Known about the structure:
Blueprint: H1 25-29, H2 38-46, H3 48-58, H4 63-105
Helix pairs in contact: 2-3, 2-4, 3-4
The structure holds zinc ion.
Zinc ion binds near residues 6 and 21.
Amino acid sequence: MTCKNCGKEFEGGTFCPHCGASQVSANNTTRADDAPSTGYAVLGFFFPLIGLILYLVWKAERPLRAKSCGKGALIGFIVGIIFSVISNLLIVPMIMQMSGMYGMLL
Ligand SMILES: [Zn+2]
C-alpha cells in the first residue's frame, strides 16, 4: 500500500514507516457531516467575521466545511476592501462635489 501522506510504498500497518503518518486517521476523523458547503461560503462572503470564526471553530474537526467558510470570508473580505476603495475614490469626491455645488446654490 502507499502512504496517504508522503505517497511512498510500504508493507502495511496503521503508521507509515517513512514519515510516521497515520493511515487510518483520514477515514476516522472525517465526519459524516463534513463536506464543502456553498451555503456557508455565501454566509462567509456576506459576514466575513462570522466566516472567519466558523473557519477557526471547524478547522480541526470539519476541514472541508471550514474551508468553504474561510474561502467565502476571504472573498467577502477582499470584495469589501475593493468596495471601500471604490467608494473612497468615486463616491466621496462625488458627494463633496455635490455638497459643494449645493453650497454654491445657497
Ligand atoms: Zn508516509
